[in-house]
User: What shape does this take?
Amino acid sequence: MTATLARGQIAERLAGVGYVADQGLATALALMDMLGRPLLLEGEAGVGKTEVAKALAALHGVELIRLQCYEGLDRNEALYEWNYQSQLLAIKIREGGDAKQIEDEIFSEKYLLERPLLAAIRKDVPPVLLIDEIDRADQEFEAFLLEILSDFQVSIPELGTIRAKTIPRVVLTSNGTRELSDALRRRCLYHVIDFPDVDREVRILLVRVPGIDAELAFQIARLVERIRKEDLSKTPGIAESLDWAAALVGLGVTRLDADREAVYDTLSCVLKTREDQSRITREVSDRLIGKVA
Assistant: This one.
């Protein structure tokens, strides 16, 4: 199967699970499978990076395992921990017994708590491993992650080396809050996800919002596009578009210019800060509706 054929099939199957992918993303996902490499997705918050991993798991019918990164994340929280409370209880129960036997028991699989990275490589069926917002973790954790992605094995001092049963499909996302290392970028395939153009956003709305009319979807997509060009502190993402469309459909709106009051009253679906709501006044809302109607 060529990459060209694969990307066409991937785009079609992703649409079947509710994700509308452009050609570039479909190609990146095809190459991800072909080359067996992790895929690094960058882009603004709200463009649908995390949804790619969810859709990929649904497409292949496998488990999604998510590691949410944050400042201060360490290897134990990402890899494994021992169930200390159960270990202490076991020690207390067996107090006075053979020390070596007690040690062997409490540092056995029974007391091992899998965290996302270890869980991902121990599945019989390869899952999708989502490493979300890797840019929020520090550089030390990033270096540790590189080791895992290179060898797909884990060394646990008390148990030895645990090698991967299967190799997961790995998706990393970044919002660009800090620059990632060259080593991580070299290890991964790379794709940037932008806010969708009007045509793709219309397709997304039609796929994800039950009962929406094509004309209303087109008007919403055009209006959201214009709102994104306003001087806002938080640009509305695709999730906000979907919420707004669902709200308008639920209120029985069929055309934005026919019910401007409902449009303005539901702007809280897309404008998520006080400053942004104060910028999009009723007059601004009417002006933007006039341009898209």
In short: Residues 198-292 form one domain. Residues 1-5 have pLDDT under 50 and may be disordered. The beta strands are 39-42, 64-68, 80-82, 112-114, 128-132, 153-156, 160-163, 169-174, 189-192. The radius of gyration is 24 Å.
